[in-house]
């Protein structure tokens, strides 16, 4: 019927506890939360348990008659519409504390919910969007879900701090020894020459005079090692202690429907995915298709400039002191150290491209998420998901992967397995931050999907955090 009842334990009286928005009782307009129930089909209900009253209802046929004493002070519904993105999963069937599991609504991380009633401090009523259902369902309020999350937190098998690792599992020291012993491909000299090779392949493909910056292998290797050494969560915590944890712990994030004004800067496009899935291949192809529209951010480094390099083209070459200063002032989306030099992608390098009217497309790893989900960058985050291992084995037959030890070598089964596992962990921890997902199976199709998603992100209304549109001090 779309209503729940409760018994006042002191007096034995039965009251309508809540009327579900859009349900039968609500549509009839005859029952309100707070009404006192006196009789059901002629049976006095005073002193009965709610279950006994439900039994009377269940055995009734045809018209059901309620005798009620209406509540005198009807609460005025002056609530404004609230839309939130769920940052956690919820299942009413596994929640013993829900007043009525049948009236509950399950949701998953990333779902957008329309909160239609917040009168109850513990149980809100919501619809999942897009929704065709007239009837709302019960969901825990923010404070209740926070409480539940804290209880749940201790039973998590993978707390965020230790949840993810990258393709290699050895620690930094073992790693260097392994390089000396087994893998001559990546000793310093070979690495340098690989960088040179990379210069040929990356920077000579300067389409229409545009250099493809931000694809340097040293930058990608540095990220891989940093993640390996510290774990995504820890790095994140140390870099952005308050904002990051707040976002990870908030069970709901208020969102609004927002369409970019044609005169505004484009939204930053951030690709994320397990190392080796093809994030950079997709990014590179996109820029090559239309370099006048798409561009990568030029990274910063403290390594010395080589004779053929230009500052601001391959990298912004800066001193260690300046780099550390920028890091201290949170000017980097992410940064790390590789072979004694610092590398990073700065917020200003992204803004520089956005100000030219182009679409800036970068790749980030999970600890860069909070740095790009801001009012000024309004990042649209696209998760590049690995296809099932069998399919990957086929499509990657002739492809090569960068690992900690080898610059380019054919994919092995353990790489595919590791990409799949890392992808699963990424999804399970960070799915709520992904605006779109592309399964990178067939490369051509993935490119088309990427182009379409980016166009939609720039030109069609999207759900974005409300703080981006009504910035607060915290945002
Ligand atoms: N759909 C695909 N089909 C076949 N090969 C692919 C596909 N996507 C990517 N590749 C190839 O897989 C290899 C790894 O891709 P890429 O370098 O883009 O990885 P990545 O996700 O950027 O990871 P990392 O930054 O660690 O290198 C490359 O050789 C690339 O050409």
UniProtKB/TrEMBL annotation:
PROSITE patterns: GUANYLATE_KINASE_1, GUANYLATE_KINASE_2, PDZ, SH3. Belongs to the MAGUK family. It comes from the Eukaryota. SMART domains: GuKc, PDZ, SH3. This is MAGUK p55 subfamily member 4. Residues 1-72 form the PDZ domain. Residues 266-455 form the Guanylate kinase-like domain. Keywords: SH3 domain. Residues 79-149 form the SH3 domain. It comes from Alosa alosa. InterPro entries: GK/Ca_channel_bsu, Guanylate_kin-like_dom, Guanylate_kinase_CS, MAGUK, P-loop_NTPase, PDZ, PDZ_sf, SH3-like_dom_sf.
């Amino acid at each position: 019927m779309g209503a729940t009842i409760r018994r006042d334990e002191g007096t034995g009286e039965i009251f309508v506890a809540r009327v579900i928005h859009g349900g039968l009782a609500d549509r009839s307009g005859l029952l309100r939360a707070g009404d006192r129930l006196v009789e059901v089909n002629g049976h006095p209900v005073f002193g009965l348990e709610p279950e006994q009253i439900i039994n009377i209802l269940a055995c009734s046929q045809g018209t059901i008659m309620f005798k009620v004493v209406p509540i005198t002070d009807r609460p005025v519904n002056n609530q404004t519409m609230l839309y939130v993105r769920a940052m956690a999963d919820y299942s009413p069937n596994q929640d013993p504390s829900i007043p009525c599991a049948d009236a509950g609504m399950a949701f998953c991380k990333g779902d957008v919910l329309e909160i239609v009633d917040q009168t109850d401090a513990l149980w809100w009523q919501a619809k999942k969007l897009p929704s065709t259902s007239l009837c709302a369902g019960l969901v825990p309020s923010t404070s209740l879900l926070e409480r539940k999350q804290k209880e749940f937190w201790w039973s998590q098998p993978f707390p965020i701090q230790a949840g993810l690792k990258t393709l290699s599992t050895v620690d930094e020291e073992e790693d260097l020894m392994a390089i000396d012993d087994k893998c001559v491909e990546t000793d310093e000299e070979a690495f340098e020459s690989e960088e040179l090779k990379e210069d040929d392949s990356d920077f000579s493909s300067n389409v229409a005079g545009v250099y493809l910056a931000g694809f340097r292998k040293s930058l990608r290797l540095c990220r891989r090692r940093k993640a390996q050494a510290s774990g995504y969560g820890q790095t994140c915590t140390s870099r952005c202690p308050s904002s990051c944890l707040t976002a990870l712990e908030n069970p709901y994030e208020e969102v609004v429907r927002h369409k970019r004004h044609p005169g505004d800067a484009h939204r930053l496009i951030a690709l994320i995915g397990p190392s080796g899935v093809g994030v950079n291949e997709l990014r590179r192809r996109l820029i090559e298709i239309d370099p006048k529209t798409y561009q990568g951010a030029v990274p910063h480094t403290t390594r010395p400039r080589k004779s053929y390099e230009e500052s601001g083209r391959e990298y912004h070459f800066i001193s260690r002191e300046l780099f550390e200063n920028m890091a201290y002032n949170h000017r980097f989306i992410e940064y790390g150290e590789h072979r004694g030099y610092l590398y990073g992608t700065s917020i200003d390098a992204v803004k520089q491209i956005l100000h030219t009217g182009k679409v800036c497309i970068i790749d980030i790893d999970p600890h860069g998420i909070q740095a790009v989900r801001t009012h000024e960058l309004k990042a649209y985050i696209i998760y590049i998901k690995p296809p099932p291992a069998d399919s990957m084995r086929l499509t990657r037959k002739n492809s090569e992967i960068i690992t900690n030890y080898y610059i380019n070598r054919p994919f092995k089964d353990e790489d595919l397995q590791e990409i799949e596992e890392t992808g699963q962990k990424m999804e399970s921890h960070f799915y709520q931050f992904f605006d779109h997902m592309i399964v990178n199976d067939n490369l051509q199709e993935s490119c088309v999907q990427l182009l379409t998603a980016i166009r939609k992100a720039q030109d069609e209304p999207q759900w974005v955090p409300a703080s981006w549109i009504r910035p607060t001090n915290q945002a």
